[in-house]
């Protein structure tokens, strides 16, 4: 099925000037970028986006990290793009992310309080819909 997913280039990706490289990899895979936004995210939006992690030890550091600088948010679209992007991104832990993936090739973070892993991608059609509504209320 043709799906949509929410992808974020996190503050570490923006700081390290990897926006273009990350979008290039998405487009090279045949996935379309259909909406794009660049801004500092309000704390409330980040807390809502990561609501499922509330109470976990890394929640506060995660929220601080995600509000530490601007983020690129995008909606991507394509056949099975949710799974396709997650495979492109690689494992959450940059050490475990396979070479050839965005995190495996480009994430240099090891062992800080939050996993600074360059990108986020929705993990299911249900979360994609929820996250797209949050980040792009006009698109849903
Ligand atoms: P993401 O895919 O955006 O979803 C939740 C984020 O929390 C994750 O990427 C990491 O940035 C971070 N994260 C997940 N697990 C941990 C963990 N065990 N410790 C610190 N940060 C984590």
UniProtKB/TrEMBL annotation:
The record's family statement is:
Belongs to the NDK family.
Q: Per its UniProt record, what NCBIfam families does this chain match?
A: PRK00668.1 (NF001908)
Organism of origin is: Actinocrinis puniceicyclus
Give the matching Pfam families.
NDK
How it assembles, according to the record, is:
Homotetramer.
Q: What is this protein called?
A: Nucleoside diphosphate kinase
GO CC terms of this entry:
cytoplasm
- Binding-site residues for ATP, renumbered to this chain: 10, 58, 86, 92, 103, 117
GO terms assigned for molecular function: ATP binding; metal ion binding; nucleoside diphosphate kinase activity
| Residue ranges of every copy of the Nucleoside diphosphate kinase-like domain listed in the record | 2-140
Do you know which InterPro entries this protein is assigned to? NDK-like_dom (IPR034907), NDK-like_dom_sf (IPR036850), Nucleoside_diP_kinase (IPR001564), Nucleoside_diP_kinase_AS (IPR023005)
What does this protein need as cofactor? Mg(2+)
Physiological role: Major role in the synthesis of nucleoside triphosphates other than ATP. The ATP gamma phosphate is transferred to the NDP beta phosphate via a ping-pong mechanism, using a phosphorylated active-site intermediate.
Any idea where this protein resides?
Cytoplasm
Keywords attached to this Swiss-Prot or TrEMBL record, sorted alphabetically, are: ATP-binding, Cytoplasm, Kinase, Magnesium, Metal-binding, Nucleotide metabolism, Nucleotide-binding, Phosphoprotein, Transferase
Q: Which HAMAP family match?
A: NDP_kinase
Catalysed reactions, semicolon-separated: a ribonucleoside 5'-diphosphate + ATP = a ribonucleoside 5'-triphosphate + ADP; a 2'-deoxyribonucleoside 5'-diphosphate + ATP = a 2'-deoxyribonucleoside 5'-triphosphate + ADP
What's an example GO BP annotation here? CTP biosynthetic process
Please state the Enzyme Commission number of this protein. 2.7.4.6
Question: Key word Acetylation present in the record?
Answer: no
